[in-house]
Design goal:
Its EC number is 2.7.1.11. Strand 16 and strand 17 form a beta hairpin. Strands 4-5-17-16-11-10-7-8-9 form a 9-stranded mixed beta sheet, with helices on both faces. It has a 4-stranded parallel beta sheet with strand order 13-14-12-15, with helices on both faces. 30% of the residues lie in helices and 15% in strands. The protein is elongated, with a radius of gyration of 24 Å. With 497 residues, the protein is of the alpha/beta class. Helix 2 packs across helix 11 and helix 3 packs across helix 4. The chain has 13 helices and 17 strands. It has 2 domains: 260 residues, 3-Layer(aba) Sandwich (Rossmann fold), CATH 3.40.50.450; 176 residues, Phosphofructokinase domain (Rossmann fold), CATH 3.40.50. Bound molecules: adenosine-5'-diphosphate, 1,6-di-O-phosphono-beta-D-fructofuranose and magnesium ion (MG). The site of 1,6-di-O-phosphono-beta-D-fructofuranose has 13 residues, from loops. Adenosine-5'-diphosphate (ADP) binds next to helix 4.
């Protein structure tokens, strides 16, 4: 089949709610011993997953997504598939597991033999991984044998990069290489990049399925329950928090300060804090704080040290950036992908705390600062992320084989589904401090909330209004952003015919 050559235009049937392609071939999984016995292993093509599961009597049922999984029929014939895999953005535990399971899933479940890794064969001569890898002269062939052990390693065997996304050149490369399934593993930036690739592929009328797999330790991708790598990051953060606790508990007025990643979203810091129970204060980008005066951080530190003799503070890298820019010259620098380059909040807050207590001369403190950020990102995925990565990879393979395209795969309320790119790209997932999870955190640390009654964000979700917060937020309890949710993408499904 390969890419559409121009002789027979792709048959795209426009349905009421998007466009639909007809399934054409029986699924070879029907002859696979693991899948052939029980009919229910296959997903009914009409199965959908509700985005909103907490509903009020009489309220609209909201958006539904296609349920992921193997179909009785597939669109692609196995020996016609030429798939490629690319990894983009920052490192994240589980990248290699996803690569492995896409290769093995395609090979073992569908008999697909041609899978390319988008990476220069010789990285010294050519562009490296990530979207830039599409510009390299060569790719690397991936087989179950070559990927067999990679899930035990951190990083990505394909390499990764930021920036350098040239849609035209990428789609040229896909077309020139005869690729008809593109698996794109990456975070929010990557999924935006995948969306424009998908649009360009559609514009050119190519018979190519584009599937996104959501990666990021920051857990900032909306709609899905969580991104892979997040669990591992939270678990690994415990080691740093434990060390901070041991250090601070062993000295007089000890303060253990741990900086964790989280550029715009404080999920790692919040979950690592909730998991540990040793943390006395957790600072995240979504919850502004202040240092001086009544109700401020310094006052709380003093109180906690008097009560307990030591304390642990966890701070997300994106927290307090507005305070830093007041004292340091504001920098508007960005990385190659356009992400804001942050000032080092860990060093800044350590110094501010030390300066305050030495100025005040009431109490001598001992502060130990731990920055484990890159160590947390570079490890292999834990057991639960490994299973999760396997499901994501297999769901993506089933979707692409069935002819779906333009989707990110991921669990919504525990069920894997195919989410159109535009849904994934319309917001970012932040900690919503009016959700109960943040209240749980505050009650576990006993830290001040740093907000006064007049700052309290009015939660109007019962009236089905989007939350009145400065950013587009996605709530964890399925109740936010109701007005954004309509039923129109239920049937969106691209089929290549
Ligand atoms: N709006 C966009 N359009 C096209 N490509 C994008 C867009 N945003 C990011 N990208 C590309 O996606 C890749 C990864 O983005 P980045 O933000 O670094 O990481 P992540 O995907 O982990 O968030 C980069 O190569 C970047 O150029
Ligand atoms: O130094 P780098 O490699 O640009 O990465 C730093 C950033 O990467 C992250 O770990 C994850 O970011 P992405 O998932 O968007 O790539 C952020 O928490 C952090 O700010
Ligand atoms: Mg990102």
């Amino acid at each position: 089949m390969g890419s559409f050559s121009g002789n027979s235009p792709p048959k795209i049937v426009h349905g009421e709610a998007g466009y639909v392609l007809e399934d054409t071939f029986p699924n070879p999984l029907q002859d696979n011993t693991a899948y052939s016995v029980v009919k229910q292993y296959f997903v009914n093509v009409d199965d959908t997953v509700a985005q909103k599961i907490v509903v009020h009597k009489g309220s609209p049922r909201g958006t539904h997504f296609r349920r992921a999984g193997p179909r009785q029929k597939v669109y692609f014939e196995s020996d016609e598939v030429r798939a490629c895999i690319v990894t983009c953005g920052g490192l994240c535990p589980g990248l290699n597991t996803v690569i492995r399971e896409i290769v093995c899933g395609l090979h073992h479940m569908y008999g697909v033999k041609k899978v390319l890794g988008i990476d220069a064969e010789d990285r010294l001569l050519d562009a490296q991984g990530g979207y830039r890898g599409f510009y390299a002269r060569n790719t690397i062939a991936l087989t179950p044998k070559t990927v067999n052990d990679i899930h035990k390693r951190g990083g990505t065997v394909l390499g990764t990069s930021r920036g350098g996304h040239d849609t035209g050149k990428i789609v040229d490369s896909i077309q020139d290489r005869g690729i008809n399934q593109v698996y794109i593993i990456g975070g929010d930036g990557t999924q935006r990049g995948a969306s424009v690739i998908y649009e360009e592929i559609r514009r050119r009328g190519l018979k190519v399925a584009v599937a996104g797999i959501p990666k990021t330790i920051d857990n900032d991708i909306p709609v899905i329950d969580k991104s892979f790598g997040f669990d591992t990051a939270v678990e690994e953060a415990q080691r740093a928090i434990n060390a901070a606790h041991v250090e601070s508990d062993s000295i007089e007025n000890g303060i253990g300060l741990v900086k964790l990643m989280g550029r715009y979203s404080g999920y790692i810091a919040m979950y690592a804090t909730l998991a540990s129970r040793d943390v006395d204060c957790c600072l995240i980008p979504e919850s502004p704080f202040y240092l001086e005066g009544a109700g401020g951080l310094f006052e709380y530190i003093e109180k906690r040290l008097k009560e307990n003799g030591h304390m642990v503070i966890v701070i997300a890298e994106g927290a307090g950036q507005e305070l830093l820019s007041e004292v340091l010259r504001t920098s508007h620098q960005q990385d190659a992908s356009g992400n804001k380059l942050l000032q080092d909040v860990g060093l800044w807050i350590s110094q501010s705390i030390k300066d305050h207590f030495s100025r005040q001369k009431k109490m001598a403190i001992n502060l130990k600062y731990i920055d484990p950020t890159y160590m947390i990102r570079a490890i292999p995925s834990n057991a639960s992320d490994n299973v999760y990565c396997t499901l994501l990879a297999q769901s993506a393979v089933h979707g692409a084989m069935a002819g779906y395209t333009g989707f990110t795969v991921g669990p919504v309320n525990g069920r894997h589904c195919y989410i159109p790119f535009y849904r994934i790209n319309e917001g970012q997932h932040y900690v919503v401090i009016t959700d109960r999870m943040w209240a749980r955190l505050l009650s576990s640390t006993n830290q001040p909330s740093f907000i006064t009654a007049k700052d309290v964000i009015e939660d109007s979700r019962d009236e089905e209004e989007p939350p009145k917060t400065p950013k587009t937020q996605m709530s964890d309890d399925n109740s936010a952003d109701d007005k954004l949710m309509v039923n129109k993408d239920v049937n969106e499904r691209a089929v290549i015919g």
